[in-house]
Design goal:
Length: 350
């Protein structure tokens, strides 16, 4: 089974236009975007951001140290800038602290060329996705998992946040590439019927913590440091449920006997998974499925670098393919652990 480190790429180029002394310097986002007529998904499943996606941008005064330690914003209005993809090669912006009722602008971001008294190292750009209104520090991003699918926070951060490029306005164009990575783990659930029966709709899926001592914690919320890629202030709970039916946009996830239909379930990474700590439970057409699946340690154990790893790792996809017999019991399960959107199937009897 192939295992790779997952990195979904988004190139964000910040260009500083040529300016004369005394004029502002323009920061222009040049982001590669995949435009599509399809509805935007809550979980990004490719290498490019979809239409209507957003990123949060912080402009900091650069420091001598690498990585930074002080994180002094260039200005209050350059904290948590909302940048939303609006149309082909076009972004809308709303500066930090500006009322959400105000109209965004699309004519670029500007900074004043600082004087030598206040400016020695330049500035740098840090970013995360998706933009959230209550973020005031790139190292303190509040998050939670579960809820309505279209409202899930597919938390991502720029790999270069902790090893940044200093931007020094000097009248020439500068670029800062940002490579975004997924911070959470994804449990990708494939559903298929064994027999030709009417189409079923996924109502919800729940990941439940098994009873017992010394089991793996199931985290429901916390804070994320988009510089180090680490979670902190985590809150554990009994269960996490994602709702797939009844979305405001009418999006439904259905399956039958023709082929696997997939839904995405986001969970907080854990460095070590204890056997059968988590239980997957299903609800179809508002009816609970009597059968549940306990995730075994052997299901997600992989060998990497000569070491066996049993964990839910950030940026990795854990695919469970379920075949249901008459929608009553789980017939068998196919499991794949992969860091790319490819499938390597392994058979496990239920």
């Amino acid at each position: 089974m192939k295992c790779y480190r997952i990195i979904y790429l988004l190139t964000l180029s910040v260009l500083i236009s040529c300016t004369k002394e005394g004029r502002n310097t323009e920061l222009v986002l040049d982001v590669q975007i995949q435009t599509s007529a399809e509805q935007s998904k809550a979980v990004y499943t490719g290498t490019k951001f979809p239409h209507n996606s957003s990123i949060g941008i912080f402009v900091y005064n650069a420091e001598e140290s690498d990585p930074m330690s002080d994180f002094i914003p260039y200005g209050d209005m350059y904290k948590n800038i909302r940048s939303t993809y609006a149309s082909t090669n076009k972004w809308n912006y709303r500066l930090g602290g500006v009322s959400s009722s105000s109209s965004p602008f699309d004519d670029g971001l500007y900074i004043k060329n600082p004087t030598i008294e206040t400016y020695t190292q330049g500035v740098c750009v840090c970013a995360y996705s998706p933009w959230m209104s209550d973020v005031t520090d790139i190292r303190e991003i509040p998050f939670s998992v579960g809820g309505q699918y279209m409202s899930l926070t597919d938390l991502m951060y720029a790999d270069q946040n902790d090893s940044y490029t200093k931007i020094k306005p000097d009248g020439t164009q500068k670029s800062v590439p940002l490579t975004f990575k997924h911070a959470l783990s994804m449990i990708r659930i494939g559903l298929k019927c064994q027999h030709d029966i009417s189409t079923m709709t996924v109502t919800s899926i729940t990941l439940e913590s098994a009873d017992g001592e010394n089991l793996t914690p199931l985290y429901t919320s916390g804070r994320f440091n988009a510089v180090t890629g680490e979670f902190h202030d985590l809150v554990s709970g009994k269960s996490v449920t994602t709702q797939y039916k009844g979305q405001n946009n009418g999006l439904d996830f259905t399956f039958d006997d023709s082929e696997y239909s997939y839904v995405s379930f986001l969970t907080v990474p854990v460095p070590e998974y204890i056997d059968q700590s988590y239980i997957l439970k299903f609800k179809f057409d508002n009816n609970n499925l009597s059968a549940a699946y306990r995730i075994r340690a052997s299901d997600i154990t992989v060998t990497r670098g000569g070491n066996q790893i049993c964990a839910f790792e950030p940026g990795y996809i854990y695919t469970f393919n379920f075949i249901l017999d008459n929608y009553v019991q789980i017939k068998n399960v196919n499991i794949d652990v992969s860091s790319e959107w490819t499938e390597v199937i392994r058979e496990y009897p239920f």
